[in-house]
Amino acid sequence: MIGGEWIRELKLEQLPSPYQGIAEAIGLENTLKLANLVQGTGVYFPKLDSALAEIRNQRIRAEFDGYNQKTLAIKYGITERWVYEIVGREEDESQVRFF
User: Fold this and answer.
1) Domain ranges, residue 14
2) What does the pLDDT look like over 2-37, one tens digit per residue?
3) Which of 25, 42, 53, 54 has the fewest CB atoms within 10 Å, i.e. is most exposed?
4) d(CA 94, CA 27)
């Protein structure tokens, strides 16, 4: 762990700027744990968009009844055409291909 017992005297405003925002979000103690793991490295946190989109798409497929594309589009903040794209991909993948 970073430092010793004296680390408890550290205040949020004494942290370097990148750590201050993290400490505000997850707390000083958790920030210090994170810093201990990744300090000095080039850690990159990719966006979660693709993982979240897949969960959204699974829910849309499960809720789609063939007629509720407008409701689903509004619920998930996408276009009706995109609802059809999401639902259509599953249908395309399940069809037998002859060529």
Assistant:
1) 5-38
2) 656 777 778 888 888 888 999 999 988 898 889 889
3) 42
4) 47
